[in-house]
Specification:
This protein has 185 residues and is mostly helical. Helix content is 75%, strand content 0%. The N and C termini lie far apart (42 Å).
Amino acid sequence: MTERTTTAEQDLDIIRRVGAGDLVAFRALVARYQGPLYTFVLRMVRRPSVAEELVQETFVRAFRAAPRYKPTASVSTWLFHIASRLAMNEAARSYQVHEVMRDTPDVPTEARSPLEELERKELSRIIEDALAQLPPQQRAAVVLARFEDLSYREIGKVLEISEGAVDGLLQRARQTLERLLRPFW
């Protein structure tokens, strides 16, 4: 049995308990997914306070929907789906009014030397700025594929599109990112 299978089985047990009103199980679900969901949402909306609110709303919605959860997708995919809908709505709103955050959000990383940290921050800023220029659905697909390591199938479930559509989104996003990042290579 793989680690991913074990985690999926544990998640299914937790969500069933949450659906029955078990608050200890809910706390375990939050503890397990708060970090990954926050990182994903932060990359989408680029504002820490908004990301925190959207992650909270994700868990509120998950808690309310847990009694009706059907295991057609993994619990993690289901949670990312809820978060992606909230984040894409916010990102689309910000994209339309051209809200831009001046500083790149700090996403937790390993400790590095000061020079490595400076280089990482600059590269991170450049990449985050390029990602912010993508339409929300393309941005979500890239973040889910690259940073959350989801398969095309899982991304399709999160975004409610086919695997072929995921491939198309990622191809268009790669072309745009390549064009935007070319001056930095």
